[in-house]
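Per reviewer request, we include the raw input and output of the structure prediction for the construct analysed in the revised manuscript.
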Amino acid sequence: MIKAIHKYAKPFATVDDLDPLIAAIGDSKIVLLGESSHGTSEYYSLRAELSKRLIKEKGFSFIAVEGDWPSCQSINQYIKGFNHSTQDVRTVLEDFNRWPTWMWANLEIIDLVEWLKNYNQQNKPSQKVGFYGLDVYSLWESMDEIIRYLEKTSSPSLREAKKAFSCFEPFNRNHESYAVSAGYLSEDCTKEALELLASIRKNKWKLDDDQENSLNMEVNAIVTANAEEYYRTMVTSDSKSWNVRDQHMVEALNAVRRFYGEDAKVIIWEHNTHVGDARATDMKDEGMVNVGQLIREEYGSENVFIVGFGTYSGTVIAATEWRADFQIMDVPPAGFGSWESLMHKSGAVNKYLIFTDGNRHEFSTTIGHRAIGVVYRPEYEHFGNYVPSIMGHRYDGFIFIDKTNALHPLVLENILV
């Protein structure tokens, strides 16, 4: 493996050195950019620079991220000039007030958001680039958005929206309470959530689309229906709830693509565990799928390009347990025999690989590949932070940064947990 890395990996210092990677992306309609943690500065900065190039040089239409739809709408409205009352990007990022806030309320994302705003100001409305969240967690916030807009417009879907809201209301915006009630006691709001989605899809053509209202209502309704299923299943099956979440992200993505048109080209930012094809990992044995797999299956591998990211050592922002305060933690040197360790041993420099039909077989051995979540305990990482992976089939390219640094979060008050 080290010989193969020596043979095919190329060093890089700046994004301009990644011209061969941009060339390899070719005419792909969907480019997925991963990360091996949600708290590493270089992953955000490098993905931003790659995204700028893809937008300028290859005409990509929008960026979709592992974030909540309502919060990401604040960015989308800001960069497209929909929200004239908000002129400060930091104010926009205050809408990312759900733990872990640092994923999007950070200094690194500010440069990209401002760049997108300036880029859009130079283009006509049909050519403006969007920014959207694909995740499933915003059940209550999405219902709030739906009720607020439908009341303002006296929409025929308001009746279904109020029925769904009334069903969820007794759970006092507590995901765990709903999960236990729906998962164990069969007291759920499935019917109401699905009826709301059907009604909004039926009536969305009546909505004013100057500010993408039909798309906003449809995806918030998709979130409501799929979040209901996610929370209902999470107490009984980790693998099923995982699949619900990743299938939702693809459904939300497809709704945005339909809105933009069949020629839309998409950049996706998510963790490696979502973008790297699950069929090339041990997830397959547990019946789990992910975004990368589903998109390759739906659109064809020839239209999809997946880039993984990783590091050997450094620092990272994470928490020791769910909802705990974030910390700057040391990322220890990668475990012996892992992918990151071999990349380091082949030369302690930043480098990238492009996997092709001509070399994938040289990267077909299953090997441990480090994954760091928002909850991280470095002292125990060897017991669960390495995903057995066939790297040449999990990705189409890989970017390795030998030593990385922690993300720079914006400190926000009134954090939602």
